[in-house]
Sequence to fold (180 residues):
Amino acid sequence: MPVKIRLQRHGKKGKPYYWIVAADARSKRDGKYLEKLGHYNPNVNPADINIDVDGTVKWLDNGAQPTDTARAILSYKGVLLKKHLAEGVKKGALNEEQADKKFQAWLDEKQAKIDAKKDGLSQAESDARTKALEAEKAINEARTVAPVVEEEVAEEAADAVVAEETSEETAPAQASNEEE
Fold:
């Protein structure tokens, strides 16, 4: 039975949420699976990925083939590195302690990159909020100044309309006086 490590879609329309599963290659995308290995939520930034590294390595050692997307996720979380290091231990290239030390160093470096990205995103978000607040203050100040100016303009317009009406009323009267 050929086994694939793939994503099984859950969630609602427009908000996907995936389980990472080991499943028979012939089963449906969202059908039966052999084992749930983790989950992947692409709706948050950075994406939330939780995976059972040891269980996934076991499936990979037994011949399971990951799909392209699953391979990218496994690589991102270090599962393929752990498998590579385990093969090195089997061949005698390094011992178990060295492999664990290398894997832990890689995980620490990866976590530092993720934390830096989160800090950058939170900094950008706070800068955007500050700019929006400043723009809103400027608009509010313009609104408080604008009614005073509008009142003055409205008074001038009303005076002009009154003057125009009086000139129209006197003009026909003058024309009728001239005809007589």
User: Anything to note?
Assistant: The longest strand covers residues 3-12.
